[in-house]
Amino acid sequence: MWRMEVGERWGYRSRGIDPLVEVEVLKLGSQKPPRVQIRFVDESAEGREDWVPPGRLKVPWADAAEFTANEARWEAVDTHPGLNETPTEWAISDVFEAVIDPAVAEPVYRYAGVTSIVDPSGLAQRLQVDEAFLRSSPLAFEDEGALLVPWETTERLVQRACELYGDDILESLAKDEAKARHEATHGYTVRFGRNDEGRFVTPEDAAARDAEWPFGKKKRDLVRVWCGADAIDRHEELRALREEVVRLDRLLSEAIHALRDSGAKARADDLERRFGVPVANAKNPRR
Length: 287
Fold this sequence. Notes:
51% of the residues lie in helices and 15% in strands. The protein has helices at 64-77, 87-99, 120-127, 131-134, 151-186, 203-212, 217-227, 229-261, 265-275, 279-283; strands at 9-12, 21-28, 36-40, 49-52, 57-60, 105-107, 115-117, 141-143, 146-149, 188-190, 199-201. The strands form three sheets. It has a five-stranded antiparallel sheet with strand order 4-3-2-1-5, with no helix packed on it. A four-stranded antiparallel sheet has the order 6-7-9-8. The protein has a two-stranded antiparallel ribbon with strand order 10-11. The longest helix has 36 residues, at 151-186. The chain is elongated, with a radius of gyration of 29 Å. It starts with 8 loop residues before the first strand and ends with a helix. 21% of the residues are buried.
């Protein structure tokens, strides 16, 4: 962050759509809210002075050209602003959170479709792509140590992540869906702040919200499309296999307990040697 001093020249902007204009800092206010007295340098302003919020002074005037150029790069890389607050934005976030370390790359907040890549080499290795691909878009640029890439690159990264790690992504999605089913069955309480008593959301409202909101069912359906039918089938088979293993483990545990309770300790010990200690027994030993 820059600190302004009296006598410095700064780039001033009243509104986000306005160009930067050169001003001179005349005085730093001492009251609240903070204010800065400025003088407009251009002759067309005829020496006009004003007290303005310091946030309107964006950059030292010597750096104004680069500041404006960087803003233009950000505007150009944001090729799909319509994706903000849509299922696509939330689906991108889910994929990254499931399989990509944020220290390597992550979606850019408020710039849906733009990805910030802090470690291009690490991301290329993780997704098994050529690092040159990450820089291939003419809209890609570097800012504050990160490579920023547009939606055309992000889309391919997401697709590649789903190709390689569909099982992990779908497993994360399954947890999200289980939570949504629980809330649609039992409802949930929303609290704003530590001392808030909260407001109960009925199961009906919870189900309706999940169906309508962009981070609910619509997002999950889109992630499944990205992962593809084969990954979905494989994940469902894996989940079924895990459930069967848990069921068999429970039966084995019950059988070992029953044998010990009936005095057949040798037989129980033999089952443990042959099949290992059931998870249920390991968690709740009963000898």
